[in-house]
Design goal:
11 strands, globular, seven-stranded mixed β-sheet, mainly beta
Length: 124
Amino acid sequence: QVQLVESGGGLVQAGDSLRLSCAASGRTFSNYAMGWFRQAPGKEREFVAGISWNGGTTRHADSVKGRFAISRDNAKNTVYLQMNSLKPEDTAVYYCAADRLRMPTIASTNYDYWGQGTQVTVSS
């Protein structure tokens, strides 16, 4: 089992920045690829960013490329999502997830463990 706890969400204005954190406990964190997903009201959960087990490979959704950046610190069992130039359409609950396949994928069904989510609200 891997337990994931997100933090860092909040209410910000358009153009602001936030950094989300996801702390992992349980099995060896470095064995897993990690991903960030988000779900807005009335919409399906969508992939935001993913990172391989060692941080060597990252993927970002087209909608956030150049604005968001995923990173991880295996010594701290933590994955981050730096979000810059936030837009109202970024408003959603953000979830982190762990994938035992070690390489980031965009399909939520590939991920084995999920956090409870953190709310990000961007006002215009």
